[in-house]
Specification:
6% of the residues lie in helices and 53% in strands. With 310 residues, it is mainly β. A 14-stranded antiparallel beta barrel has the order 2-3-4-5-6-7-8-11-13-14-15-16-17-18. A three-stranded mixed beta sheet has the order 1-10-9, with no helix packed on it. The chain is globular, with a radius of gyration of 21 Å. The N and C termini lie far apart (43 Å).
Length: 310
């Protein structure tokens, strides 16, 4: 165990050192297993699509057992306006990796039009906000490098502008989004680039099959592409029983397999949980990743909505 811990610390030091020596600190957007129930976090056009005031909180602890491993918290609030044509939302994200923290605060806006007689709709979404990148090199093992690059902590703020499309009806959906169009480079006192935001492209899709009166089946997919990095693909299969219990499995390409479970406690409260088992060599150093989600929805008085699986 001591040898593994020392090896891992050395690996973390090497990664941070390589990133800084190469004068680029490429940031990836936060990762979620329960993306299919946290959709506004990946596509602003989803704002208001729950048709009620919806509040979702999520906490993710990745690679349990590794000091400084990623941890993510998100809070999303959104609701429809004007006969459900306009949606407004607020998204707050805290993403931590070792001594580095990223914060995102974004306002989301969507506008929905009906495009066919079978109630198929197309939603256009935009988002805007601020991204903060901070670091505290005095924490953990980073100071052991003795590299002058880590002499000063980072505290960088930059704007974010994103957009998305979301085509959907009661049975299926497909969405395409770019969380941030802006490519921002930050410089140190010597004018050496140490941080660079790269554009992400997200594609989501899902379909609901009615297997019986009390059982629904929804396969879903999430593909993320980033310039200069491998494509990340998630596929999942979830079952909904009696509009109350959700059980499913997910697979992330060359990374992990996951189990998902959720319970609709009341009409307005849903609790979800997922566990990821790492399938790479990193599984020798961690016991998996955990994610818990709470969604509270304020139902409209006198209006009964059919159960939503997405």
């Amino acid at each position: 165990m001591i040898q593994k811990s020392s090896l891992l610390k050395g690996l973390i030091l090497l990664v941070f050192s390589t990133l800084m020596i190469n004068t680029s600190f490429a940031q990836q957007d936060p990762q979620y297993t329960q993306y299919m129930y946290n959709t506004m976090s990946v596509n602003p056009a989803y704002a208001g699509q729950r048709e009620v005031l919806s509040i979702t909180g999520l906490h993710r602890t990745q690679w349990v057992g590794i000091d400084g491993a990623p941890q993510t918290q998100t809070l999303g609030i959104h609701a429809p306006l004007r006969n459900d044509k306009i949606g407004l939302g607020l998204s707050v994200v805290n993403d931590a990796l070792g001594p580095v923290n990223e914060y995102y605060i974004d306002a989301n806006f969507s506008y929905t039009i009906q495009v066919s007689d079978n109630n198929t709709k197309l939603s256009f979404g935009v988002k805007g906000g601020v991204h903060a990148l901070t670091s505290d090199w005095s924490e953990g093992v980073i100071q052991q490098l003795g590299d002058p690059t880590f002499a000063d902590n980072l505290s960088v703020f930059s704007p974010t502008i994103g957009a998305g499309l979301y085509l959907h009806n009661r049975k299926w959906y497909v969405g395409l989004s770019v969380p941030n169009f802006l490519k921002t480079e930050h410089f140190d006192a010597s004018q050496v680039s140490i941080a660079k935001e790269r554009m992400n492209y997200y594609l989501i899709a899902g379909y609901v099959f009615d297997l019986s009166e009390n059982t629904k089946f929804k396969p879903a997919a999430f593909v993320k592409a980033v310039s200069g990095a491998p494509i990340i693909a998630d596929v999942s299969a979830n079952f909904l029983f009696n509009d109350k219990l959700t059980l499913g499995l997910a697979w992330r390409w060359d990374d992990s397999v996951s189990g998902l479970a959720g319970i609709q406690v009341t009409d307005g409260l849903y609790i979800g949980y997922s566990y990821d088992a790492t399938t790479t060599n990193l599984n020798n150093y961690n016991s998996g990743s955990h994610e818990i989600m709470l969604r509270f929805e304020l139902q409209k008085v006198g209006r009964i909505l059919s159960p939503r699986f997405f």
